[in-house]
Structure formats: structure tokens, C-alpha cells
Amino acid sequence: MDQGLIELIRELAEPIGGVAMKRMFGGVGLFRDGRMFGIVVADVLYFKVDAESAHLFEAEALEPFGYTAKTGERVVMSYRRAPERVFDDPDEFLIWARHGIGAAMRSAEKPTRKPAKPRAKAGSVRKAEPPDL
């Protein structure tokens, strides 16, 4: 991994505040408020996308991050390549990083599935008693 690239991203992300970088999956994840909004893999920076922001990345033909699973299946994740100009223009970096942060925060807002209620075992249903009158 190009440490110069990682240091450049760290420097560009500094104005955002609260950005942490952690090694993971053979790359480096970019986190804010505990949510991953970007990832650097094979010296390529990707930002998180969702339904609200994907069109911005698609308009620039920025490819999604994906990998081949052990099963041979292609897995595409909700991250898209950052435009190359983000490395030359700190304002552009902030714009695109904020799209990634927004997508990461919105994904945190999604309701989680409620756990299923435990089911009674067969034969364990009790008959209701009539009320006392």
C-alpha cells in the first residue's frame, strides 16, 4: 500500500474533523463517528454511496468497488471510486468525502429488523382459565 497516498488522504480529510483511518481487508478504511465512509484498496480511493448519492458517481462513470469471493462469485459493495481530481483539489476532496459520509450516516438510520418473538413449543400451550365471578 502506498503510504504517501494514505498520508495525502489523511491530510485532505483533516478539515472534516474526527476522521479515523484503520487497516482492514488488505486496505484502509476511513471512518467518521464510527461509520465507514471510504476505503482505500490497491491504492484506489472509494467513497460510500447510497440511493441518494449514487447518481453523482454514475454521472462520472466512477466504477463500484468489488471483489471476487472464494466461491468465484463477484461481490459489488456500496462504494464507488473517487474522481482523480480529489487528490489535486482539497475542496473537491471535501465535497466527495461528504457524499460518502452522508451515505454512511444514512445507512446508520435504516431501521433494523425486530427480533422474532419466541414461539411456544408444541404441546406447551396452556388453556385459558375462566375469570372468577
From TrEMBL:
Residues 12-103 form the TfoX N-terminal domain. It holds the Pfam family TfoX_N. Residues 104-133 are annotated as: Disordered. This is TfoX/Sxy family protein. InterPro entries: TfoX-like, TfoX_N. PANTHER family: PROTEIN SXY.
